[in-house]
Amino acid sequence: MTRCKTQSVRVCLLLLTAVWFALPARAQDYQRGYIGLDAGETRDKFGGVSPVTGFEGGVDGEFALFKNVEKKGTPDLVIGGEIRFPSNTQEHSTEFAGYAGPKFAAGSHWDIGFHIQVRKLFVPPGQLGGVAFSRDKMLMLELPFVVEYKFGPALHAFVQLQVSPEFSPRLRATTDQPPVLPDPSFDYGYSGRATVGYSLGKWYVKGTYQSRYLKFKQDLGNPNELYNWRATQITGGVGVIF
Length: 242
Description:
Mean pLDDT: 87
Strand content: over 45%
CATH architecture: Beta Barrel
Shape: elongated
Largest sheet: 10 strands, antiparallel, barrel
Number of strands: 15
Distance between the termini: 33 Å
CATH topology: Lipocalin
Order of helices and strands: HHEEEEEEEEEEEEEEE
Structural class: mainly beta
CATH class: Mainly Beta
Number of helices: 2
Strand order of the largest sheet: 1-2-3-4-5-10-11-13-14-15
Helix content: 10-25%
């Protein structure tokens, strides 16, 4: 699993670099974005099992493919993504996400937009009757609504909020062995994220709190609500603005 995570990080970073250099010269002239590193605590709770806490690292980035034209009121078109890698994959999930969407400037202080986002989660295994079983990995569509407010000297401080419903995930087995349980039936889910930060010229610092809840129906695929999942992360990070 560690080798897989390392290779995935390298591939994602190479893809971001390739996209950057593949942009036409005119697009690069108007480029604005960031790439950063995060570290902190993740906490996961499945069904009635006691929550577990551990260390989590992350890489995230975003840049504008096209900048807005103020006179026409057109938005920025941004693309981005993130990777989250816990220290213990037997208790916490590894996650990969990529997104694209518009960002509208509402005056000098506000940015409002939404993302069309795809997220892949490698869900940790669980225990059923004292026997370990592998939970299915999940591929999810998310549509986070994003609001950012800039304030302070030269508008260097910012607060960003994201809220998203979670849609029925596509489930895939993590092993070639016959499944212990049938696929569970998704009920509902939601996620939210709050970030506060400060820009220091070419650098920024930020702190983030995130929470996600996924609920599955009580059926043969979800005995004792073993797939019902609440995850929270508290992280701090630094990054480069370009």
